[in-house]
Amino acid sequence: MRVLKTLFDRFTLALLAVMLAATVLPCEGAGAVVFEILTSLAIGLLFFLHGARLSPQDVRSGAGHWRLHALVFFCTFVMFPLIGFALKPLVSPWLGAELYLGLLYLCALPATVQSAIAFTSLARGNVPAAICSAAASSLLGIFLTPLLVYLLIGVDGANMGLDAVLKIVFQLLVPFVLGQLARRWIAGWVEKHRGWLKVVDQGAILLVVYTAFSEATVYGLWHSVPWQRLALLAVVCCMLLALVLWLTHALAKHLGFNVEDRITILFAGSKKSMATGVPMAQILFSASAVGAIILPLMLFHQIQLMVCAMLAPHFARRGDRVRAEG
Fold first, then answer.
1. More confident site: 7 or 92
2. What keywords is this UniProt entry annotated with (predicted)?
3. What is the number of other CB atoms lying within 10 angstroms of the CB of residue 17?
4. Which of 12-16, 96-100, 149-153, 319-323 shows the lowest mean pLDDT across its residues?
């Protein structure tokens, strides 16, 4: 029951509803222009709030654990992309070029912030280190993800010119920095309204998804991606997550990290951020390609939440098991 609740939470149902709305009633013409403007404003607000939420004290408290952070960054920005690239001969013929590009894009994204920290806390891992790693990964991803996209996909597959770089700076980085600068005045308000701000986060993502899938529908996305290919994509995402979970845990154990640190590495190094990935795809890829590009990310995001919701309580009960055996 808990797994079903995680899989079919309100946000997941909202995503499905937005995809359906974009398929049946896509925005076109002048309406599409209005939604593009609203989407740009929503993305800026999203990253402003990310900056306003990030406490420098939390970052400093976990910043000294450099070996842990190095391994998390390796898993996020090196291991993941290498796996995605290695999967090309196996999955590209079955998924098709567009969905495989989406899979590569997924592998190039930074880790999540909120869910990585939440699952680490639930599993009784090293929470300060999780906060530092996840926040740094999200910030570094603004620079590293476009670079990885260029290396993995090439300039022909993505918009990697000066215009895209400037959009990333002004739509993502500048609002984030402004949010950090505004913390001294709005930190208390942000903390008090954390629940309401989560709605703003999710609303921005839903707006981007509607705009992206509207454009994709107009360009015939659902004619080129049959349901059999979507089912296969879900299987590939499950296999990718299982492989990454095993590798992150095995590497952390082999390198001698304690249990709390291994939990942090597992949850921070195996997750990919939809909050960063969906808005950035809007900048890096052509409007007609964004819908197919973010499909793997949306599937992977839900699968990782479902699996981690089962893993976290398992790790949290480790002390009870030890006492029972003693």
1. 92
2. Membrane, Transmembrane, Transmembrane helix
3. 12
4. 319-323
Q: What is the dihedral of CA 72, 2, 230, 198, to 10 degrees?
A: -60
**In this structure, what token pair is assigned to residue 21?**
């709305």
Residue 70 contacts by C-beta under 8 Å, 6 or more apart in sequence? Answer: none
SS3 label, residue 180: helix
CB atoms within 10 A of CB 298: 22
CA proximity to 240, closest of 65, 145, 100, 56: 100
User: Residues 23-37: pLDDT tens digits?
Assistant: 888 887 778 888 888
Spatial CB neighbours of 3, under 8 Å, sequence gap ≥ 6: 306, 309, 310
Which helix (H) or strand (E) is 92 found in, with range?
Answer: helix 88-95
Q: Nearest 5 degrees, angle CA 85-CA 282-CA 193?
A: 110
N- to C-terminal Cα separation, the chain: 32
* Residue spans of alpha helices (H) in 108-153: 114-122, 127-153
Residue 60 — very low, low, confident or very high, per pLDDT cuts 50/70/90? low
Q: Which of 102, 108, 43 is nearest to 275 (CA)?
A: 43
Q: Specify the residue for token string 């701000």.
A: 197
The CA-atom distances, in angstroms, between 70 and each of 130, 246, 273, 282, 301 are 12, 18, 19, 29, 23
Full set of structural domains in the chain with CATH: 2-310 (1.20.1530.20)
Give residue 232's Cα distance to chain centre: 21
